[in-house]
Amino acid sequence: MTMNQEIITGLVKKVIDELIMEKGPKREDLTGLVDTVDEEVENSVEAQKRLIEMSLERRCEIISSIRKAVLDNNEMLSALSIKETDFGRYEDKIRENILCATKTPGVEDIQPIALSGDHGLMLLEFAPVGVIGSLTPITNPTGTLIHNSISMIAAGNSVVFNPHPSARETSTRLVQILHQAVVDAGGPPGLVSSVREPNLETAREIVEHPKINMLVATGGRPVVNVVLRSGKKAIGAGAGNPPVVVDETANIRKAAQCIVDGATINNNIFCTCEKEVIAVDEVADSLIKFMQETGKAYLLTPEEAKKVTNLVVTPERKINIAYIGKNVQVILREVGVELGEEYRLAIFEAPKDHPLVWLEQMMPVMPIVRVKDIQEAIQFGVEVEQGNRHTALMHSTNVENMTAFARAVQTTIFVKNGPGYAGIGLGGEGHTSFTIAGPTGEGLTSARTFTRQRRCTLVESFRII
Ligand code: NAD
User: Fold this and answer.
1) For residue 464, what pLDDT band results from cuts at 50, 70 and 90?
2) Is the pLDDT of residue 28 over 70?
3) pLDDT confidence of 30, banded at 50, 70, 90?
4) Which H helix or E strand runs over 1?
5) For 335, what's the count of Cα atoms within 13 Å in the CB-facing half-sphere?
6) Are the CB atoms for 221 and 238 separated by under 8 Å?
């Protein structure tokens, strides 16, 4: 190549690069982080248009790239999340991220449905909704972002996140990783993004932005209500208070082990974790004994239980946020009890009106309520679930009892004879979700949740039998 040719080739390349940059986001925005919601949404609209012009094969490659990037960065993300929020346990964050990276369905979840008959062929396809605004919680700053990104992009959408401000560092770092994974796989920049400084004002701007087609709130009831009032298509994944009922027919030793395991994953911050035990009188003592025999559950004396309650419940009967997601040793040290590292949970017998039975504690302190029989257990389980329609659990070998509780409690997830996390696919069948839409009824969300249905009818042809 002569020197002139080299100069011309270089100039052509420069012009092409500039054209690409003009069409896409500005170079400094290639991290997935921008300063304003307006800028974010403009990039997101453009990115979504470019995504649906690409092949499904490319979309699958983008999803694979996201999964790999999460697994490659898992240790860093888990450590950062613990450092920033001080919620949960490192080894459980690792499990959470692996679960979301590997068991969130991808493009296969939006397979079309075809129906052929005397009048021809009907094809039902699951089309993207466009740009989705996603508000994410402090409790799962990694899991929710990973799950939502995979699900929303697999369905052909772009997503603008408004992470919880107190999980800003972890969430924005993760957005950068997800964004880079998309770009590395040949996807458009801006497909997944966040503002650099998410707060309530940026959340409000996202909720009200005319170019955002769907809203998804993963958090407490107030934020779910905010998106439901927006006038847009909205998905609400709200709070839970999962009761676990143990009847006299259960394998009590196994029930004890499952409850301890389920209630202690990530120090109880998952919304699906067991939050209160309701045990029939006949087996309550042996349940408590077997829980202690796991070597991980410490039985509080009535005096200690009172002190712990006063510590973790405020005079206004709210959960003291300072103790959410903390190790049991940290909580009990405050009331003068020193526990060995092997302990994961504090348990105590509680009356029905105890605040920790009714509040979503999200910490490893578990009330156990004793009831006369299964009828009373079912009735009380329904009451304490409080219509969240989230998660309930039961340990029993009596099919009629299990059916009766499942029918009465009406939750999105009902786990029988296993820990709560089995209901989100960890050691249980089925895909995972970290956006469990009880209030709006989509259940364990996946790519298909973030679509709109489109029907195409071909009259009198294409039936080949
Ligand atoms: P939160 O409701 O305080 O916050 C969730 C998100 O909503 C955050 O990004 C926050 O900034 C935003 N937000 C809160 N109030 C808002 C308002 N008025 N306007 C606009 N945005 C608002 O919840 P959290 O404390 O971060 O998370 C814990 C809660 O989330 C628990 O109740 C837990 O059960 C629930 N949760 C539910 C699911 C599920 O799938 N159903 C998953 C994880 C957590």
Assistant:
1) confident
2) no
3) low
4) none
5) 20
6) yes
Please tell me the predicted confidence (pLDDT) of residue 252: 98
**How many angstroms separate the CA atoms of 195 and 245, rounded?**
43
| Of 84, 201, 271, best ligand 1 pocket probe by most atoms within 8 Å of the beta carbon | 271
* 8 Å CB contact between 365 and 269: no
| 240 within ligand 1 shell (Cβ under 6 A) | yes
Q: Best of 86, 87, 164, 359 to mutate for ligand 1, by most ligand atoms within 8 A of CB?
A: 164
What's the pLDDT score for residue 136?
98
Neighbours of 135 (CB within 10 A): 24
Q: Are 280 and 250 in contact (CB under 8 A)?
A: no
pLDDT digits (tens, 9 = 90+) for 426-437: 999 999 999 999
Give the pairing type, strands 131-135 and 158-162: parallel
In whole angstroms, what separates CA 126 from the centre of its chain? 22
pTM: 0.93
Query: What CA dihedral angle connects 34, 38, 40 and 43, to 10 degrees?
Result: -120
Between CA 464 and CA 327 the distance in angstroms is 63
The alpha carbon of 447 and the centre of ligand 1 are apart by a number of angstroms equal to 21
220 lines ligand 1 (CB under 6 A): yes
